[in-house]
Amino acid sequence: MSADPAEAQDAAPHQDAARSRLSARVLDVDPLLDDPRTRIVVCCGAGGVGKTTTAAALGLRAAERGRKVVVLTIDPAKRLAQSMGIDSLDNVPRRVKGTEGDGELHAMMLDMKRTFDEVVEAHADRERAAAILANPFYQSLSAGFAGTQEYMAMEKLGQLRAKEEWDLIVVDTPPSRSALDFLDAPKRLGSFLDGRLIRLLTAPAKLGGRAGMAFLNVGMSMMTGTLGKLLGGQLLKDVQTFVAAMDTTFGGFRTRADATYKLLQAPGTAFLVVAAPERDALREAAYFVQRLAAEDMPLMGLVLNRVHGSGAGGLSAERALAAAENLEDARIVDQGDGKAGLRNSPDTYGSSRTPAAAASEEGSPADTERSVDRLTAGLLRLHADRMQLLSREQRTRDRFTARHPEVAVAEVPALPGDVHDLAGLRDIGDRLAAGRPEDT
Amino acid sequence: MSRLQVVSGKGGTGKTTVAAALALALATEGKRTLLVEVEGRQGIAQLFETEALPYEERKIAVAPGGGEVYALAIDPELALLDYLQMFYKLGGAGRALKKLGAIDFATTIAPGLRDVLLTGKACEAVRRKDRSGRFAYDYVVMDAPPTGRITRFLNVNDEVAGLAKIGPIHNQAQAVMRVLKSPETAVHLVTLLEEMPVQETADGIAELRAARLPVGRVIVNMVRPEVLDAADLELVRTVERSSVAQALSAAGLGGARRGGNAEKLVDPLLEQAAEYAERYALEQEQRAVLGELGLPLHELPLLAEGMDLAGLYELATELRKQGLS
């Protein structure tokens, strides 16, 4: 930030001086959304950075540019869900009314338990499905397992994709404790349900009969004994029946998990990492960028939400604060009077100010002047806060760009309130497509 | 003052920060607190700028006036091995179980077991006494799972009783619930002055109350300072642009004439004030919603320079000032 007043005063086009340092590539979302080869867009990132809103805004934009789109959201804000008509939990996509253009927007909110139930119902005969659904172990797993939501989001994505009903699927990822969970959960759940232990639990006799596996059998009986004591025999029996039922009907969770994984790597899938210009969110984003590269998953770019700007970027925080102090000091020392000379200097409007202001206010002109001074000092302090925030955000972004110069970035300016309707989403979409905040 | 203080909140509201600040505040003046992490994120280590915490209680900070903060990252697998060791003297068999994936399985998938182990460990620390019969820790502060999962997490009894009807886990769950549902425990919820976290806080409180878990306080985190008050915001709507230009000019920011440097600042500054006003109104709305919850409400300031160790002490002082310790 410049300490030189001359330089700052010359910054007439109110562009944030700091922004010019950003050398990251600009992410252009429209070609991505328009390309018929793009079939899936996955929005991922830490919690609380506006993933759901970004996914919804992208979906709306693609639809209004002529594509038939479905948006899969995980946990939308109530009013946003209502505005899209997806606040009822029936786990199927609904057409969103009020979109413009030839395309269509459908949206749905994930019901993870229901999705799990559907998987069971689709793969088991009626009797066996009923047994699984009634199993207490299944009930707990389908509602509470730490990775179930992630796994079911991916499962639903696979289902939607298989239907071939939509040109483009935009998917929001669950608000995990770590952004990586949704990549890991399917594998983790898959390996649990398809792992050595489960096979032991379900078929100890078969394994025990094989030469060289005898020691496993010993371990096995000791272990089921211990687990039985620890958890109670009923639970262990529930687990065994559950796993047996699952195993025969599913043909292995791992296979499904692998299929999901392949889908994410397939051409036509694009990942967008969503973040806010804050240290933790960008750290998570950087982590994610590395992870996607390691998994051969195509990263299209970073959407940086809630970026602040200022129309008065040429006025530094330091000068704004100094000026605010000037106004406050003058008020105390001069009691409103001594400033007259300054006010009437040839550089200003001079006396035209006082009558104009006084006419609209009660109290003496001096009172009015004082309250305007007070307000102006406040405006300057507000601006100083803004400029400090801006430079913090800039530093954080620069650190990310230094580490990942290859990642294209689209900036979305911060809005003072939440987005609640299609107009708001459309606005976000416009800003996203612009790539960087408009200069005001 | 409850000896087990559970801190929850929607993701992104800073619950780990608040939990850490609370542990510091409670340790002030010679007390000893234990700060417990249950989600394996190593958020405490990051906050206190130390290396990753092992599954071991270790001192991580000294509070003003000579108190001490210990920290523990509970690892459910190791906690389970602990219990097995305690009840069955397993020795090497524990390792064999681990190799088979049984421990993994039991702590990750077995419903409720993980939570029993985590809350159980915290409750054990609450009840633990040293040789002289004094409590080992004056307070235990838990950085708990987020609001959406907190009731389920604490209400292990319901979870486990239906599944493990007998055995040490069942007994363990019962003992844990006695602590969690007593006045010994207080569950605090951290929120921001934004619509979604506030909504989630209200829902979370309703759930906690329905489960008869003791709700403590609502802590609003990252509250922005009030730069313009209601009178200023009123004036923003009616003020003459030219008089603001003149005030800016008087403050030394250039000419107030049309096209002058001060005059060109007026619109952007007023626009920033309008954005501020919109947010101010939204925040007031959310404050009102929180006010209706009928719980003690506290506010912690947004730290301009971001969160660091010094900031943590600042927040701890603030919590003390507001009577949370």
From TrEMBL, chain B:
Residues 5-180 form the ArsA/GET3 Anion-transporting ATPase-like domain. This is ArsA family ATPase. Signal peptide: none annotated. SUPFAM superfamilies: P-loop containing nucleoside triphosphate hydrolases. PANTHER family: ARSENICAL PUMP-DRIVING ATPASE ARSENITE-TRANSLOCATING ATPASE (PTHR10803), ATPASE RV3679-RELATED (PTHR10803:SF31). GO terms for molecular function: ATP binding; ATP hydrolysis activity. It comes from Streptomyces argyrophylli. The lineage of its organism: Bacteria, Bacillati, Actinomycetota, Actinomycetes, Kitasatosporales. It comes from the Bacteria.
